[in-house]
Amino acid sequence: MYRVEPPQNPGFQARNGIVGALDVTPAGYDEVRGRQLFTRLTDELRALPGVEAVAVGQRLPLTAFDSSDRAVEVKGYAPATGEQVGAFYATVGVGYFDTLRMPLVEGRDFSTRDDANAPQVIVINETMARRYWAGRSSLGGRIKLGDHWAEVIGVATDSKYGSISESPRSFMYLPLSQSWRASMRIIVRTAGNPDDMIAPVRETLRRLDPNLPLFDVQTIEQHVAFSFFVFEMVATLLGVFGATATLLAALGLYGVMAQRVAMRTREIGVRMSLGATTSQVRQTIVGQGVVLAAVGLALGVTIALGVTRLFASQLKGVTTYDPISYAATVVLLAATTVTACYLPARRAARLDPVRALRME
């Protein structure tokens, strides 16, 4: 009953690439050595043939099971009574937005100058900018994270952070150089087949430290596809349930019409003895079944139009009303009805009038 519209924009365009998880804590890295390792690793990966861009990040968009949020204070913003001021966040390295081709609509990206000794900076998304800096630029705005104030230096486009169907949410990006995190994801955008880069990436990390494994390695395309898995599974189940319901409806209609034919055997015999042709008998039986189905279809379509409006807010990328889909459904059910009625009608048309008149 739904028409699929153009795909929802996930907020990034990178498709060719791989991503793998890396945790330096078990290998004994502290904050200083960990930052140095991430810097060396990204520099060496950028030098590999076929690599277009490299970055590290706490998470990728469309990561359903890795979300973090925190309360913040926005300078100059007066929250309403009971309002929770906060945002989801992720720690990212230099080049994260370029690697994922996630455009900045305003300001700049993080750079090597934004180190631990520099003033704290932050990049926010469009939703957060609109919420706390409505009608004005958020660049230069101040956000308090814990005991420190950070300056907004850029605004990134909105993304789908947990699910393609989620509503826009406030999100902020913290630089790895100022917000340490030992567990990160290595993101490599490639020019060619990303599967060909998995071995070189592992080998590069092995040269830097053979005790550091790269786990949960997958292509960016596989990562995106996994986020649609639940929707595809639900759609498949709904299709199976719909086909089963159609089959049961056809069997039920066949049973009803077969029973009606059996109850009207003498009537059919009288009609045929008075000159009714087999074609007329078939048309009568099928016509009665079609009338019953038409009443059911009218009620069903009316109810469907009303129910889908209740779920309109939960549907992303589809519309609740599509004449073509409704028409196709009606045609399919009508064809099923005719088929279910035809077999009892054919059997009725083959009745011997003399035997039919003698039946009680």
What share of the residues lie within helices? 40-55%
Biggest beta sheet attributes: 8 strands, mixed
Return residue spans where pLDDT drops below 50 for at least 5 consecutive residues: 1-7
Q: What would you call the structural class?
A: alpha+beta
Counting DSSP E segments of at least 2 residues, the number of strands comes to 14
Distance between the termini: 47 Å
Strand content: 15-25%
With helices defined by DSSP (H or I, 4 residues minimum), what is the helix count? 10
Give a brief outline of the structure.
This protein is of the alpha+beta class and 360 residues long. It has 10 helices and 14 strands.
Write the layout of secondary structure elements.
Layout: E1 3-4, E2 17-23, H1 31-46, E3 51-57, E4 69-71, E5 73-74, E6 86-92, H2 96-99, E7 104-107, E8 121-125, H3 126-132, E9 142-145, E10 148-156, E11 171-175, E12 183-190, H4 198-208, E13 215-219, H5 220-227, H6 229-263, H7 265-273, H8 278-310, E14 318-319, H9 323-349, H10 353-358
Parallel strand pairs: 6-11, 8-10
Antiparallel strand pairs: 1-14, 2-12, 2-13, 3-12, 4-6, 5-9, 7-10, 8-11, 9-10
Helix pairs in contact: 1-4, 6-9, 8-9
